[in-house]
Specification:
By secondary structure, the protein is mainly alpha-helical. It is 79% helix and 0% strand. The protein has four helices and no strands. The relative contact order is 0.07.
Length: 111
C-alpha cells in the first residue's frame, strides 16, 4: 500500500508546469487598453484613499467628542475605528509596495 502511494506521489510531481516562463503583460491588448486599465486602477485607488482618510478623520472627531463629553463606550469605539482606518490607510498607501513584494516572492519561488 505504501509503495503505491509513493509511486503516485512521484508520478504527480513529474508533471511539467504549463505556465513556466509566462508572465502577465497588459500591452498584449494594445496601448489604449493598457492606458485605460492603469487610469481606472489609479482612480479606484485614489477613491479608496479618500474614503479611508475620511473615515479616519470621522473616527478621530468621534473619539475627541466622546472624550470631551466623558462617554467611555464611544471613546473606545472611536479609538478602535481610528486605529483600523489608520492601518487601512497605511496599507492602501503602500499597496504598490505590498503587491510588488508578493509578485517578487511569487516569481522568486517559481510560481
Amino acid at each position: 500500500m505504501f509503495n503505491t502511494l509513493r509511486n503516485e506521489i512521484i508520478i504527480r510531481t513529474a508533471i511539467e508546469n504549463p505556465l513556466d516562463g509566462v508572465t502577465p503583460k497588459l500591452d498584449v491588448f494594445g496601448v489604449k487598453f493598457e492606458g485605460a486599465t492603469q487610469l481606472i486602477l489609479a482612480g479606484i485607488w485614489a477613491l479608496a484613499l479618500v474614503l479611508v482618510a475620511a473615515k479616519f478623520l470621522w473616527n478621530i472627531a468621534k473619539w475627541g467628542l466622546a472624550k470631551d463629553r466623558g462617554h467611555s463606550d464611544d471613546i473606545s469605539e472611536g479609538a478602535a475605528g481610528a486605529k483600523k482606518s489608520g492601518i487601512a490607510f497605511g496599507a492602501l498607501a503602500g499597496a504598490s509596495v505590498i503587491l510588488g513584494g508578493i509578485l517578487f516572492l511569487a516569481s522568486t519561488a517559481g510560481a
